Amino acid sequence: MAFIGAGVLRGMGVTFRTFLETYPWGRVLLRGLRQPAVEGLVTIEYPDVKQKHAERFRYFPFLVYDGTPDNLRCVSCKICEQECPPQCIYITGPAKDEQGRPQKANGRTFPVEFKIDVSICMSCRICVDVCPFDAIEMDNQYELSSSERFGSLILNKQELLKPNEYFQRIKPTEASEVDARLAAKRPKPQPVFPPKAP
Amino acid sequence: MSTAGELLEVSLGPQHPSTHGVFRMNAVLDGETIVKLKPVMGYLHRNHEQIGEGITYIGSFPFTDRLDYFSAMSNNFGLAIAIEKLGGITASERGEYLRIIMAELTRLVNHTAVTGFLLNDMGAFGTPLLYAFREREKILDLFEAASGSRMMCNYVRPGGVRQDVPEDWLKQAKEIVDHYPHFLDEFEKLLTENEIIRQRAQNVGVLSKELAVNASITGPMLRASGVDYDIRKVDGYSLYPRFSFRVPLGSVGDVYDRYYIRILEMRQSVKILQQALKDIPEGPAISPKGAAMGKAPRTFRPAKNEAYGRIEAPKGELGFYLVSDGSPQPYRYHVRAPSFVNLTVLEDLCIGHKVADAIIILGSIDIVLGEVDR
Ligand code: SF4
Ligand code: SF4
Asked: Are B136 and B113 spatial neighbours (Cβ–Cβ below 8 Å)?
């Protein structure tokens, strides 16, 4: 090293460069000096500007329905309730009639109530992985904070239900995969056999 | 009246920014010199091991993210290795490559951040830390694209990774990795030759080879003292023997060496990453057995056995010890946390130094309280 303090000065050179990079005129100046200059300002002014998230960004689960809300995919098998690591899913059901027989809607059992606690959920996605019916998926809506502990922090079935179109909109790749998988599972319409004689 | 020889007890923390979380140091001072120092931990105890014994093997993965929250991917990797040993699962090749890529990216994230924090502790308020975070952010974006979360990734699974990376991901990763050496050059220009940092860090908190080995210190801290021990080389787990990289070693074992060894390790990580991103094969990202286990965690019932899986996490040897009793839940689940073990020599390093030096010695050990207390 040439003299004591040279290292400090060189370091200051780096900070000065970065300082220039944060201003448009600074970048022009740097380019004029034949220096590479990239946009130096990397912070985002949340909440005025929001970051664009990756497609897979996950925050909180929701329940998928096809068409109308009563045609939800969840059959209330309670696997997700059992496997959720912090145990924040509470399911009541499946729905039963007066005689105690399981009620069915669209050929499936369904939960009476389905609650997830936002403040306990740790966005792990295990419920999505274990659900055999692709009924639960991860949402990317993250502004769910509230000033009370209960109430709006515990989402019930009505608040959790979202249409498949919404899922298609936020996560097109994943939703298409799920749709393809479900279509493969659905029994094909049987041809009428033997064909009726004219 | 003279106060010579009178000792003063100072409690640093638990709510103190320099302790990197809720950690407390009870220091006994003679003037400004430390004569005794007692670390107090346990403020962030979350019952991690006991929880792990009450849920399935897969269920522990999201909790491991919260151990050392700077390096979630490595933590997942460690548990995955232990479960693979226990259940005799092999990983798919692409899965192994992806795991190595993630683990090395994590090392970049961790070492970049900790260097920034160390400088923050020294009083270089903000600048190096923000430079570090600027780069770290880019890698976190990669993690988000692959796993859906920036820090709590929950991505690696026994047998591979949970989902294959999206299209174009490898290309983006390559861009960022190729740019990294430029950042490291800039970072070094800012810091390595800086006389103030040298004055502050050289010959402070010297950890001798003998003490390091006897206290079972691992990771960059051990290597800064000049002991050649890297589990990637020693165990050769996963596919690490395929990659060519060197293990940088320090000579003195002071704070400065511990800073510089991390820079050198990052350069080696970049090398591994470049090789891995070039050679990564096509194929399934997870082996069939691993995929079945992820879909239905309760079907995985390993025979009565025990297994210890360990990896070279950014902070040192991260080990998971599992005992199975044949049920879907582990009978015993233990974590060997590198931060915790590395912290045990804090007193030996600090004695004889000034209070201000204790702060940077702690910073150079690189602890994350989530892992120390579990
Ligand atoms: S969401 Fe899926 S796993 Fe959970 S109860 Fe409904 S069908 Fe079962
Ligand atoms: S994301 Fe994880 S924590 Fe949240 S409800 Fe699903 S399984 Fe439970």
From this structure: yes
Ligand closest to CA A64: 1
Q: Which of B183, B129, B123, B191 is nearest to A12 (CA)?
A: B191
How are strands ordered across the β-sheet holding B305-313?
Answer: B305-313, B316-324, B330-336
Ligand 2 pocket residue status of A131, Cβ below 6 Å = no
* Contact predicate B72/A123, CB 8 Å: no
Among partner residues B58, B148, B196, which is closest to A57 by beta-carbon distance? Answer: B148
Provide the ipTM: 0.79
> What's the gap in Å between the CA of B179 and the closest CA on chain A?
13
- Determine, yes or no, domain membership for A196: no
Name the residue among B56, B141, B147 with its Cβ closest to that of A83: B56
CA–CA gap between residue A190 and residue A198 (Å, rounded)? 20
Size of interface A-B (CB pairs under 8 A): 86
- Contact A130/B at CB under 8 A: yes
Q: Are residues A45 and A96 in the same domain?
A: no
Residue A122 CA, closest ligand 2 atom number: 3
Are A45 and A101 in a shared domain? no
Burial of B115-125, coded b for 16+ CB within 10 Å and e otherwise, reads bbbbbbbbebe
Q: Kindly state if the Cβ of A91 falls inside 6 Å of ligand 2.
A: no
Do A47 and A88 have their domain in common? no
A96 and A173 assigned to the same domain: yes
Same domain, residue pair A104 and A28: no
Residue A151 maps to a domain: yes
The answer on A83 and A19 residing in a single domain is: no
Structural domain containing residue A150: 61-185
With CA atoms as reference, the chain A residue closest to B183 would be A14
Contacting residues of A for B141, CB less than 8 Å apart = 54
Query: pLDDT in tens for each of the 374 residues of chain B?
Result: 566 667 888 888 787 776 677 888 888 888 888 888 888 888 888 888 888 888 888 888 888 888 888 888 889 998 999 998 888 888 888 888 988 999 999 999 999 888 888 888 777 777 788 888 888 888 988 898 888 888 888 888 888 888 888 888 888 888 888 888 888 888 887 777 777 788 888 888 888 888 888 888 888 888 888 888 888 888 888 888 888 888 888 888 888 888 889 989 999 999 899 888 888 888 888 888 888 887 888 888 888 888 898 888 888 888 899 898 888 888 988 998 888 888 888 888 888 888 888 888 888 888 888 888 88
For residues A126 and A105, state if they share a domain.
Answer: yes
Co-location of A95 and A26 in the same domain: no
**Cβ–Cβ gap A4/B195 under 8 Å:** yes
